[in-house]
Amino acid sequence: MLTGLNVAVIGGDARQLEVIRRLSEHDANLFLIGFDQLEHGYTGSVKINSHNISLEGMDAVILPVSGTGSEGQVEAVFSAEEIVLTREMVASTPEHCIFYSGMRTKYLEELMEKEKRKLVPILDRDDVAIYNSIPTVEGTIMLVIQHTDFTIHGSNIAVIGFGRTGMSVARTFAALGANVKVGARKQKDLARITEMGMKPFHLSELKDELSSIDICINTVPALVLSSDVLAAMPVHALIIDLASKPGGTDFHYAEKRGMKAILAPGLPGIVAPKTAGQILANALTILLTEQHQLERSMDNGSER
Ligand code: NAP
Question: Over the stretch 141-168, which tens digit does the pLDDT of each residue have?
Answer without folding.
Answer: 999 999 999 999 999 999 999 999 999 9
